[in-house]
Specification:
Elements (H helix, E strand, L loop, with lengths): L16 E7 L20 E9 L14 E5 L2 E3 L3 E6 L2 E4 L27 E8 L5 H18 L5 E7 L3 E8 L2 H12 L5 H17 L3 H32 L6 E8 L8 H14 L7 H5 L5 H13 L2 E7 L19 H22 L3 E2 L5 H13 E8 L7 E9 L5 E3 L3 E4 L2 H15 L9 E4 L3 E2 L5 E10 L6 E3 L3 E14 L8 E9 L1 H4 L6 E10 L2 E11 L5 E10 L4
Parallel strand pairs: 7-8, 7-10, 10-11, 11-12
Antiparallel strand pairs: 1-23, 2-13, 2-15, 3-4, 3-14, 5-6, 5-13, 8-9, 14-16, 17-19, 18-19, 19-23, 20-21, 21-22, 21-24, 24-25
Helix pairs in contact: 1-2, 1-9, 3-4, 3-5, 4-5, 4-7, 5-8, 7-8
Length: about 575
């Protein structure tokens, strides 16, 4: 998988267009009128919370009465609650008042892990910033983590970034495949050494500058370059996390990097200040104020906010370890001043800490003991609480702030600090994209998709007829006075080619109006909806999502077809 395109992110030019959707009904036979139901859209906001003592040991056995939860500073009643201890959930996976009666005893069967507690782990390797030696030290403990942590139902994926993002391993339960891929990446080059060499050249040019303005100009050019790379990194990482929005379960992202500077070029402006002291430049001392104009804190926060909006906890690993910023070696003609080295290290470690803090995760920096961070991740995955509360009536794509406290103030609480309660449009768009990339299992509407024969067009594309069949019994249809019945559904479609370049998500709303006579003929029958797609030649995958406008019940299907001229 080479690249992603999210409908709202506009990261890549779309290579596929989706034609307008048209509808047609299928005749049905006489049958009894289906049972009408009253539906209420009850939405829950779920917050995973890790609670530890001051030494980092997990606190277990708490109840929902031990917690206080606030949204935008307003207290919320915790309606749903369960604890995960030793990797197993216990407590209320649904609201107590809504629990069904206990079923009759059944023969012992292999217990299925609830979808909400299944774990998805994303290993994101930032080769744009990493030195191979530092990266590979982390891999040693990362592979041990894969061996010891992944359990039945867990899935992991491996992603690398080096000016473009590449999914090296899609979600898989095959731990051997994951470790072999990490070994393969360990044999590859990375951009860290080139970045280090460029930084040494910049230091030399600043030292050799004939004036303060010349030195500042060198620092400014360097900062612009670093800022450009940062924007690329942030865009790709955010795009990846957006595609994971529709994936269920507990999701964590392990970011291994030596980049993501909070203030691009900070170290270069500190270097100007040090050089100015030696040369007596006029204006020396104000270079750090100049450097503050390169402030990327909002970019760094956008990564954390994207993670929170898509239910992902970030664990950040600064691979530089104890040697980060240490340039006291024979290859350097002059030692880098301590203030400059410290500025270089703090520039990226501060951002790594911020992303972890905002998403309820942890960060490892200034240490060669990478095993410790992976042990802490394992502990977090095995011991946490899930708190749920009822959402308000407003459902808009707006960021909200979360705060969770325990009544025992000696405990340390970690949780995501923000969330976005997405509109139905955004939620369905996310899920239909996720279905394209990771296969969403949800299909409560029981939709079926049938693909027709591709027909070549004059401009080199292929037109593909797609029929979406929706069981009438799955749709919620309500009375409309004495005149009949009404309902409706929305159809979402997205297409990807063999390179995983995607179209925009196409959406079409459709209303149903049935007379009493027509209503009697619906039971056991399908409503057929036709879609014409315009795609490129070759392998294409088609993801379809349908949501009932009344009940918000949804269904998803994924099909693929090779578009070629069969004449």
């Amino acid at each position: 998988m080479k690249s992603f395109r999210h409908a709202t992110a506009a990261l890549l030019a779309a290579m596929i267009t989706v034609a307008p959707l048209t509808a047609q009904t299928r005749k049905a036979q006489e049958a009894d009128m289906p049972k009408l139901v009253e539906t209420i859209d009850v939405r829950l906001i779920n917050v995973d919370v890790v609670v530890t003592d001051r030494k980092g040991n997990p606190i277990q056995g708490l109840t929902k009465d031990d917690f206080e939860l606030f949204e935008n500073g307003v207290p919320k009643v915790i309606t749903n609650f369960y604890e995960v201890a030793a990797g197993k959930a216990k407590g209320d996976l649904v609201e107590e008042a809504e629990k069904p009666a206990a079923p009759a005893p059944l023969p012992a069967v292999k217990q299925e892990i609830p979808e909400k507690t299944k774990r998805r782990i994303i290993f994101y390797v930032d080769n744009l910033s990493l030195a191979p030696f530092n990266r590979n030290r982390v891999f040693s403990d990362m592979k041990n983590f894969v061996d010891t942590v992944m359990r039945q139902g867990d899935e992991a994926m491996v992603v690398t970034f080096n000016r473009s993002m590449k999914v090296r391993v899609p979600f898989t339960r095959d731990t051997t495949y994951i470790k072999q891929t990490l070994d393969s990446i360990a044999g590859e080059s990375a951009m860290g050494p080139a970045n280090h060499s460029e930084w040494k050249d910049v230091q030399g040019r600043i030292r050799d500058a004939r004036s303060y303005d010349e030195a500042v100009g060198e620092a400014r050019m360097y900062a612009n370059q670093i800022e450009h790379d940062l924007r690329q990194s942030v865009s790709s990482l955010n795009a990846l996390m957006s595609t994971l929005a529709g994936v269920e379960g507990k999701k964590i992202l392990v970011l291994t990097s030596e980049g993501f500077p909070m203030q691009p070029g900070r170290e270069a402006f500190y270097m100007v200040d040090e050089a100015g002291k030696d040369k007596g430049w006029t204006g020396s001392g104000s270079s750090m104020l100049e450097g503050m104009t390169f402030d990327s804190s909002s970019l760094i926060q956008s990564v954390a906010k994207a993670a929170n909006a898509n239910g992902i906890t970030m664990y950040t690993v600064h691979a530089g370890g104890l040697t980060a910023g240490n340039e006291m070696s024979a290859e350097n003609q002059q030692a880098t001043p301590y203030t400059v080295s410290y500025a270089q290290v703090s520039n990226s470690t501060e951002s790594m800490q911020l992303m972890a803090d905002m998403t309820g995760g942890l960060s490892a920096a200034g240490t060669n003991n990478f095993k410790d961070i992976f042990n802490k991740i394992e502990r977090d995955l095995s011991s946490y609480y899930s708190l749920g509360y009822r959402a308000g009536t407003e459902r808009v794509d707006r960021q909200r702030y979360l705060q969770v406290k325990t009544k025992n103030r000696n405990y340390i609480v970690r949780n995501r600090q923000t969330f976005v309660e997405k509109s139905m449009y955004a939620e369905m768009s996310d899920k239909v994209i996720a279905n394209l990339l990771y296969r969403v299992k949800d299909n409560d509407l029981n939709i079926l998709v049938r693909i027709g024969t591709p027909r070549p067009t004059d401009d080199g594309y292929f037109q593909i007829p797609v029929e979406i069949q929706i069981p009438m019994d799955s749709l919620t249809i309500i009375p409309q006075g004495d005149s009949g019945f009404a309902g409706g559904f929305d159809v979402y479609v997205v297409v990807a080619d063999k390179n995983n370049d995607m179209s925009d998500v196409a959406r079409k709303q459709h209303q149903l109006h049935l007379t009493p006579e027509e209503m009697k003929k619906t039971s056991g029958r399908f409503y057929s909806y036709s879609v014409d797609l315009l795609v490129e030649k070759g392998l294409n995958r088609i993801s379809v999502g349908v949501v009932d406008q009344v009940s918000n019940t949804s269904g998803f299907a994924l099909e693929q077809i090779i578009a070629r001229d069969l004449r």
